Structures are given as C-alpha cells and as structure tokens.
Amino acid sequence: MDRHYDVIVIGAGAAGLTAGIYLARARMRTLIVDHGTVGGQMILTYQVANYPGVENASGAEIVATMRRQAESFGARVLAHSEVQRIDLAGDVKTVEVEDEGTFTATAVILATGGVPRMLGLPSEAAFKGRGISFCATCDGDFFEGKDIVVIGGGNSALEEAVSLTKYATSVTVVHEFDHFQAQPWAVDEARANPKIRFLMEQDVREFVGGESLEAVVVAHKRTGEITRIPAEGAFLFIGYVPNTAWLKDHVALNGRGEIVTDESLRTDVAGVFAAGDARAKRYRQITTAVADGTIAALAAVEHVASRAKGAGEKPAGKEPAASPITSSEASPAAPGKARDHSRLLRLPRARASRASVS
Ligand SMILES: Cc1cc2nc3c(=O)[nH]c(=O)nc-3n(C[C@H](O)[C@H](O)[C@H](O)COP(=O)(O)OP(=O)(O)OC[C@H]3O[C@@H](n4cnc5c(N)ncnc54)[C@H](O)[C@@H]3O)c2cc1C
Question: According to the CATH classification, is domain 4-115+240-329 in 3.50.50.60?
C-alpha cells in the first residue's frame, strides 16, 4: 500500500467523498479515511429530496454512488479505520491509522462532520437503543403500529417525523419553542399529516419505562404543566456536535468547537483544509457539504502544486476574496471550552508548529 499521498481526507461523508472525487480526478494520490462506515450522516437520511439532479433517493444510494465515483477516479477509501495520531505541522503531514500504520501527505482535508446532539438526561442514556434513536432510516420500521415521539423543530425533525408516519400509528413532535426553525415547506408538510400532533414550548424531563421505553415526560416551559406522552419510541433531532474535540491542539476551533476556515476553506495551518459540517458555517446540508468538499479539494490541489513547484503558498487571510468570519459563525468561547481562534486567520502567517496528539 502507498504510504505517501498528495492529499489525505479524514472523514468519508458528503464533504470527504466529494473532495475525494475532485482530488482523484485531478490526479492527486488520494486517501480517504473514516473511522465509521462510509457516508456519515447521509446514511441516516431515509429520503433525500433536495439534492439537485436526484429527484428521490435514499442517503445510502447517494453514498454508494459518491464512493463509486471517488474510487473510479483512483481514490483509496479506508473505512472503519481509526485515526490515532496526526501531526499537521510542517510541509509533510503525518496521519497514523489503527491497523494500517502511518501515512504521510502534502495536504490534509478535515471532513469529520458531526454527531447528533443528545439532551444529556440520565434516562436518555438508559433507553438509548431500547426505544431512543437518532436515525429514522435505521430504526423506523421497529416502530410499526406504535406511538412515537420526535424531539426537535428543525428540518431534520419535521422531515423525519413525516417519514416515520409510514410506520408509526402516531407521531408527537415535541419542541422547546413556540415556533419551528424548519423551512416553511417542511412545517406545512408535517402539519398536513394527520398522524402528527405538536406539543410546543416543552422541556423534556424524563424517559420512562421498564425493559424498553414506555413514555416521554415533558413540562410546559411557561406553565410547568407536566404531560406524560405514552410512546415506545423517541427520535431525537436536536442538532449536532462537531467531531473536532481531538483536533483542538492542531487547528483553530471556535467557541462551538467548529473548525475555523477562510473562504478557500484553509485552516490556520498551511496545507490543512476543512470541509462540511465540522467547520464553522451557518447552513449544514448535503449540498453545502458537497460544495465545501469541492472548494477544499481545489484549494488542496493548488497547495500541492505550489509545493511541487517549490513556490511559497499564500498564507491564510491574504486571499483577496476571503471574507472575515462573522460573529454568527464564531460564538464566544465558554469558560473552559476551546478558544475562539477565528481572528488568527487574518494573521499573515501559517501556524509554525503544533504538538502531535493522540
Ligand atoms: C437525520 C438527518 C437527516 C438529514 N437530512 C438531510 C436532507 O434531507 N438533505 C440534506 O441536504 N441534508 C440532510 N441532513 C444533513 C446532511 O446529512 C449533513 O449536513 C451532511 O451529510 C454532512 O456531511 P459531512 O461530510 O460534512 O459530515 P458527516 O456526514 O458527518 O461525515 C463525517 C464523516 O467523518 C467521519 N469521522 C468523524 N471523525 C473521524 C475521525 N476522527 N477519523 C475518521 N473519520 C472520522 C464520520 O464517521 C463520518 O463518516 C440530515 C442530517 C441528519 C442527521
């Protein structure tokens, strides 16, 4: 197996696979490493109806096509391969992968996405996999003929609530605010579905049951009124947490732990780029992840070419069209949390060195 690649992509979701397609097609020696199954969050999506050019497909179908495309151009994909150590400082980047050994690359694209956010209740952990799920695609059919609860009020929550009505007898959508954050069409579709009812302004207090989930207890945020919703399933769609904690000593993160980039998706380390849900941005969709994968790949190709020519790369923050990181993208760091490094990107230099961390 080759040990040196032009570019190593960490994460094989929509962003990483797209980067792989562009890189391999540009004849870059490309390795894509994922510690899980290939596809990331797309695998969790039962039906994707908003990916241009594809009228209706499951996330898994789109993943299979993207992977085929990347491999057909020559990208190598390693799934179920844990990245154990990285060293991103210097001209040659090092990526150590469990059972596969150490690889080096001229550029690295970080496309590690995110995982569904949890409420943090003790009873939530107790019923995870025994009624509590984060994936309608994976678990929806377990709830054929049952009553279920969907927690959340964004696009994912309402779209997945609608998809779950294929199986469930009833779906109660529980949301913390008096309005939804979802797009109007998603709200309209959910409201038009006779199997869905809505409980607004609710705090989820507890999940109760025996061997498996039997009910979700919620409290009205203003009146405190407690409601016990009988349910054998509860699906949580309340946002995401970026998979970046392990990167905090390697690249700049903002207060939410998102990787800070400039418009060309360069991080504050020369030759290291970030794409997809792991980076600081406002909208997280397959299309935006795909766009990021494209931009990061093209920028990485330029970086590799400049290294090959021995020319100096333009430092982050010197791109004429680069727009500053907005305050909405970079929230203030909470005490004890990762520092907000967004302003570092405006410094006319790449980070000199960083420690290699497990
Ligand atoms: C339930 C649900 C439904 C959705 N529905 C839609 C929809 O209908 N339309 C739409 O456009 N968007 C939808 N989205 C959002 C969309 O799926 C994501 O925005 C997009 O897929 C993100 O892609 P990504 O490549 O940035 O990250 P991810 O898909 O999260 O991929 C990241 C990959 O990186 C890997 N990884 C993480 N850490 C490491 C590590 N240390 N080492 C190696 N690999 C690592 C992960 O295993 C994963 O495979 C949905 C999301 C969810 C959760």
Answer: yes
